[in-house]
Amino acid sequence: MNKTCLECGEKIVGREDKKFCSDGCRNAYNNKINKDSTNFMRNINNKLRKNYRILSELNIEGKSKTTRAKLLSKGFDFEFFTNILHTKTGNTYYFLYDQGYMVLDNDFYMLVKKDI
Length: 116
What we know:
This protein is elongated. By secondary structure, the protein is an alpha+beta fold. It comes from Flavobacterium zhoui.
């Protein structure tokens, strides 16, 4: 049974479970299927990345405090996050992957990092 490369259609030589003829074809194929398909998706992913970078920059120790004004001055957008965690004690944390924040009193925010 002759198998062909999923990217270029060339004959594959080697292991039985091989799907690509070369690393170049494998990379090209994966880049095509994983790219953001619309400007809308690309813009949201860019905002999530920017928010993540801001939290990472301000939360070097893994737990710290900051102000709403400082987050906004760096361009943080509070509408974009990846998930919400409600604790048993009634606290709500908003996360961007492993970096999170919780609203405190007087426009302060507690920044936290999940251990993964």
